[in-house]
Amino acid sequence: MRRSLGLVWRDRRARVGLALVALFAILAALASVLASHDPTTQLDLVSKQFQPPSLAHPFGTDFYSRDLLSRVLHGARISLGIAVLSVTVSIVLGTAVGLAAGLAGGLADQVLMRGVDSALALPRLFLVLVVVALWEDVGVVGLVLILGLTSWFDTSRIVRAEVLSIKHRQFVAAARAVGIGLRGIVVRHLLPNIAGPIIVMATLGIGQMILLEAGLSYLGVGVRPPTPSWGQIIADGQQVLRTAPWVAVFPGLAIVVTVLAFSLLGDGLRRALDPRAR
Amino acid sequence: MHRFVAARLLQAVAIVFLVGTLTFLLLRLAPGDPLTGTSSSILVPRSVVEQQRRAFGLDRPILEQYGRYLANLARGDFGYSYREHRPAWQAIRDRIPNTLLLAAAALVVTFGLGIAIGVIQSLRAGSRVDDLLSLASLTVYSTPVFWLGIVLLLVFGETLRWLPVAGATDPVVYDQLPLLGRAWDRLRHLVLPALTLGAIGAAATARFQRAAMLDVIRQDFIRTARAKGLAQRAVVMRHALRNALLPVITLFGLAFPLLLGGTVLVETVFAWPGMGKLTIDAIHGRDYFVVTGAAVLAAVMVVIGNLLADILYRVLDPRTREAA
């Protein structure tokens, strides 16, 4: 494990990714300290509407005269927070189902994997849209659950495949022979051996989740105003694209850099943790 | 081959059946029912709501409702669109051609651009050009598709004014245009949405194509081709590319769900009158059956896309035919 982390560090792209991820994590965590203004306060509707970027407002202001930099910083907290939490849900669930299917085999495995197949056949955005449409305003916690519960399918497939490839290996048989129970085998032998792909999936998954959440919020079915999320600020910005293009541009750039950071880190981790990819 | 296609068709039907079941479960698990919007209005008398509920069979036992729902789906009856006052299927059907046009154009961008970039990269693997293109495609892959659309719209629509900013046709003059003029008008409206929707896929395809090419180039038959004195161009086009295209075809199947999800966002950005825009409008208008109908139809399209990719793959690669 330590050797793998060393490999990640020696990989220049992964290093850039890691640094950017750390930076955005800090920015998101300290958003309320760093932001010069409250993200929802309307500063002065008459004289401060649609201010272009300046020293006082580095990202400019929007229709409601709100400071855009403060909104993007707070948006980082919301967007990253939702992505990290929902990926946690999806990874835990996907790993559990993948382990169950891989270990049980037989009919249970067949049923689970057919279910996963049909869920994968439904375009993810449509699936989430149906759920969100039926439940109306779900709130941030609801959104995390919906995103997490609709995105574990890939994970379960990959975990199952990994489990199948190692469950008949000798060290597992040996562990079984000396009387280690199912739980001990899963916790001490299976999980450590499939941790690599799971970490890679989680890292890349956070980036994809940020995109998905941004898309939903852009469509007006994700995070509701006035809570700022990147996708929703962009939606606001499209309304005023001609007068104030900065409103849509800055949050978009924030998304691109963040997702790129997770992609770079994820790819680096894959190269380090997966011997086949080297 | 026939047995393979039959088996795959059966599997496809099973998947659509499961998707139908899933949407039914979601409909039932959701708070309220499709008439909640009507029944919570004080303008509608309770007796009318009850009557409608009976008319739509919402008072029947759940198993009977489920059976009826599936039977209706099988007949293409997706329910009723309360917003458009006609069957949901008709509302969706009218939008299908626009979405298919957009998706087809995006597919051309995805594979045309993606394969070309991937081949260029593989020929100069490890060079600066390769590095830059890799970073570029990773960046595009990290870009939210709707934001890419907005930026293109800002640059080519609002600022340069080269291309129209919304819709599939010009709302004023389209009907008066001659046939060729109409085609030109449609094409001009199609460029930005198709480019937006295709770009993300092109980035993914380029990464995949590059890897596939590098895999093939290392193999013996390429060395043989080189050894017998074939020009680089012939080696690449006739030997390497043909074999490296195979893994990319599986991407075709994978690209479909992404593409359909993308249409929802891109159609919203460009006010493109397709299935995706319809779905979003239906969500905001609480028009349930249009949403679920569109989801089921999207699943059917994905399944068909996968089926086509599978069959194409077997037609093109004789090795996979034996292993059935």
Describe the structure.
The complex is a heterodimer of chains A (278) and B (324). Chain A is built from 12 helices and no strands. Chain A has 278 residues and is mainly α. In chain B, 77% of the residues lie in helices and 1% in strands. Chain B has a two-stranded antiparallel ribbon with strand order 1-2. In chain B, a hairpin with a 4-residue loop joins β1 and β2. The mean pLDDT of chain B is 83. At the A-B interface, α5, α6, α10, α11 and α12 of A face α1, α6, α7, α10 and α11 of B.
Q: Gyration radius of chain B, to the nearest Å?
A: 24 Å
Mean pLDDT of chain A: 84
Envelope shape of chain B: globular
Overall pLDDT of chain B:
83
In percent, how much strand structure appears in the residues of chain A?
under 5%
Q: Give a short account of the largest sheet of chain B.
A: 2 strands, antiparallel
CA-based shape of chain A: elongated
* Class computed from helices, strands and strand pairing of chain A: mainly alpha
Q: For the report, how would you describe the main beta sheet of chain A? A: none
How much helical structure, as a percent, in the residues of chain B? over 70%
Secondary structure tally, helices of chain A: 12
State the distance separating the first and last CA atoms of chain A: 16 Å
Indicate the low-confidence ranges of chain B by residue numbers.
Answer: none
Computed Rg of chain A:
22 Å
Tell me the structural class of chain B: mainly alpha
Question: How many helix segments of chain B?
Answer: 13
What distance separates the N and C termini of chain B?
9 Å
Q: Got a strand count of chain B?
A: 2
